[in-house]
Amino acid sequence: MAKETIQNILTGASVILAALIATVLGYYGNLRVKRFEIEVQSRKEEANQRLRFYLPLLRFCDALDRRIGHILTKIDTDWLSKTYLEKIHKKEGFACNPDEKGYFISSSTYIFACFFGWSEAIKRGIASTSQVSESGRLSRWLSRAKRRFLNKLGIADERGAFLFDPDISVVSKLFQYEELFSDYMVSKTLKEPRDASKLHKQFQYSIGELMIERDGQENYRCKSFREFFNAYVEDKGFRYWFVPLENLLSDLSDFEKGKDIETQVQMKNDIRPLRLLAIRYWCRVLMKNMGRELNIQTRPPDEVLYGISASLTKTIKSVEIDKLESYLLGVRIHHE
After folding, report:
1. Is residue 126 scored above 60 in pLDDT?
2. Taking the model in full, what pTM does it have?
3. Coil, helix or strand for 330?
4. Residues paired with 161 in a beta bridge
5. Angstrom distance (rounded) from CA 277 to CA 283
């Protein structure tokens, strides 16, 4: 009798245990499915967010690429003469008469500024949404346990910090990378040439902040040319932040006609065209990588380097983000 009782108890216990195991496994399975659905949805939202921000940046990168190409083929003209900017500052010339010269230099400034604007929008918009949603106490506990485990192994959690897009970083840094042409200048015996490498990152950030505006709760937009130009003419405080950018373009004119770009640079002792050439090349690299992600075909980067010397080509193509100043877009702070 005792033996049968024990068997009955064990049988009942095994049934209960099996039911408990099935319940736990079912709960865990449902939790994993739910987490997977959350992660899939988060990735879709992130992809849509990237599309909303990267598509306008790609459009303005294309405009920037074309404008730099136009500038470099027309630097024998006077379109970028500083006198046109000075008249605009005084609300004269193009500022009061659209038939006067001045559109080219002001619109060029605008196109460059839009690049900083959309870079700032990406920093604000994508960094704040590029994280996988987590819900439930168990899910959060598992996430914290995972981070502790990875930290003990010396492995960084890839979601712990959002690095600035490396291609955007390279283009941005070229506006302030003074040492870029040091070796080239020595080889060409250029002595203290004119350059414009003072558009430091805080100026870039400030220009970006001035150029973007909220468009709804989550989206951003860049100022239109009309909005930009009105603020530029009327507000000295607004115009102040664009002075380093103006220095890249002002008087980039009256170069020797009919000469290749390196000869023009040497004759004028002005390497700003080479800085623009480097920016244009890496802008195309940026477009190529963005285009691949968005399934959009873009023009090849090497195309802009045709006809220049091997030493200059090497100087421009050898730029690496690791050699430039790196920085974080934003950091997620985890509360344990």
Report:
1. yes
2. 0.75
3. strand
4. 331
5. 10
